[in-house]
Hints:
By secondary structure, the protein is an all-alpha fold. The chain has helices at 3-53, 56-70, 77-95, 105-124, 129-141, 146-167, 171-184, 188-208, 222-235, 239-252, 257-266. The protein folds into 2 domains: 7-125, no CATH class; 173-270, Serine Threonine Protein Phosphatase 5, Tetratricopeptide repeat, CATH 1.25.40. The longest helix has 51 residues, at 3-53.
Amino acid sequence: MGFQRIRKRVMKRRIVLPLSGLALFLVFSGTALVASASEVNKGVREFREAYASWNADAFAQAAGTVSKAAASDGASAEVYHWLGVIQFHQMLQKRSESGSSASTPAVVKFREAAIETLTRALQKDAKDAEAHAMLGTMMGMKVDGMLSGLRFGPSISRHQDQALAHGTDNPRVQYLLGAAKYHTAKDKDGFESALKSLQTAERLFETENKEPAGEENARWGYDACLVFLGRTEEALGNREKAAGYFRKALSVRPNDDGAKEGLKRTASST
């Protein structure tokens, strides 16, 4: 066998083997991406069902499904976004239980998990407006006095500013901003500012609801926005308007405990 013939065979092997390895890598990578997308889509569907039932076990199932996709190498911003959304709602669900507070250990556990996940989402996509809005909300939950306000205040403001910069027409951004204003309002002007943001969110939600959501999407926050509108109107002394919003919230999600409690407080005057 001549030298040139041997050299050709060696070169052929040096080229073919790497190309074969690349092909296998692309095949496995593509399969992993498809599997990841499948897990996310399944998890989003499970989240939608959990949101409707407001059930802790259902939220846990959705989180477990999306966590599988997050555990894979190169998980996308979308994966971390949806896992963060689910963990955020695990926190809210636990917070809504009787006797629970922002400092309840289970609430803190879900909050810290959501903060970590949504921070990773922003590392992948710094313009994720909903992630910024949720992080601003959860940072606000950490404030329990002057010192913690000084510590977390700059982060809260930064996330709220970024949320509005990238999602001023996003109903969930406006709703979370309005809810934050409600929680920090100290006078009529504060509650009226909250009302303005929440009314903007309401209009955006109603516009969004006119469009099909898609099978692999989950719209959240509309009923909660209506509950906060009711609470804000109640704080402003508008009990009839408040009761109307609580009723509207219950028409969206009949098992909303916040709306039920609000209606009990305000319905007697309507």
